[in-house]
Amino acid sequence: MKILVTGGAGFIGSAVVRQAVRDGFEVVNLDALTYAANLDNVASVADAPGYAFVQADITDRAAMDAVFADHAPDAVMHLAAESHVDRSIDGPGAFIQTNVTGTYTLLEAARAYWTKAGKPDGFRFHHVSTDEVFGSLGPTGMFTEDTPYDPRSPYSASKAASDHLVRAWGETYGLPVVLSNCSNNYGPFHFPEKLVPVVILNALHGKPIPVYGAGENVRDWLFVEDHADALLCVLQNGELGRSYNIGGENEARNIDLIRTICGLLDRMHPEGAPHDRLIEFVTDRPGHDARYAIDPSRIRAELGWRPSVTLEQGLERTVRWYLDNENWWRPLLDRDGVGARLGVTA
Ligand code: NAD
């Protein structure tokens, strides 16, 4: 089976690419290489037989048609997106362009290719999305696949729009689609501006660790390699037209997550301990969703999937990876003013 993975040089896409190649799939990695991409993320599989990389933008219809014609994939896993909520607040335009127009363009190219090929039964278009489309929960309850959409940030609104487009292409044109909505990921190769790497890198530099509001916001956390595993499971075994919520069964308040990382650093990198002295509460993000929680019953009952690591185990692996891979993250601090914004330098 040959899989076209969009966004395969990003955080989750590269985990999917690495795992798919290890599992023996042929993989075409399509990525525009925005600030968030890094081909080092897939360096371990770049020479594998059956792996190809194409630099292209999903909003470019001619380029998408060419990729389908040249590579004839059996399936698409669509992860390319603008993904950072804070950036969507500062500049929503890129999110509409890539997440909405880009998904539309990719759907149309996929539909043309699938139609021309005689609508083969086995073709799949797997759209990868987020639990943020469901909005914000109170102290109780969980998101199921039937929870009404209620996106509240430009990022989540653009992802919600893309989910609707994918469902509509399934209903209207019969395109064989499957969707998944996942909670917050963390793990190796996570771009330095995201919460978990910010905590690790600022702690290593002895810089303040910024915490929005009182750190009371609750998220469900999933180790990225478990997400990649779940996505390949949904692609192969998911029912057409259905969506699957993917979660880590690991709810944590931001402040508790941050304290756990600081505790791991105290043990694994005692220099500068105790690291939680660096925690600094900052003005909350506008419209900051209070709580996300995933009910993963469907994927567990129907596909037999569940996460392989606990939050503590996954965070320990993540901290170890950042301690051992300074050559990966150090140059990224220079990119797009990321290091300067975080108060750490390259
Ligand atoms: P990321 O920002 O690390 O990677 C996105 C990739 O898409 C980058 O390599 C980028 O170059 C590429 N890209 C962006 N615009 C493009 C375009 N116009 N054409 C082609 N490529 C383009 O994001 P991520 O965290 O790996 O997220 C991947 C997907 O998973 C996204 O769709 C996101 O919404 C979804 N998701 C993320 C999380 C999370 O916690 N990170 C959780 C659930 C779902």
Report on this structure.
This protein is an alpha/beta fold and 346 residues long. The chain has two domains: 2-186 and 223-246, 3-Layer(aba) Sandwich (Rossmann fold), CATH 3.40.50; 195-218 and 251-288 and 310-339, UDP-galactose 4-epimerase, domain 1. It contains twelve helices and twelve strands. It has helices at 11-22, 61-71, 85-90, 93-116, 154-173, 195-204, 224-237, 254-268, 297-303, 311-324, 326-329, 338-342; strands spanning 2-6, 26-31, 51-55, 75-78, 124-130, 177-182, 184-186, 209-212, 218-223, 243-246, 251-253, 279-282. The strands form three sheets. It has a seven-stranded parallel β-sheet, with helices on both faces. Strands 7-9-11 form a three-stranded mixed β-sheet. It is globular and about 60 Å long.
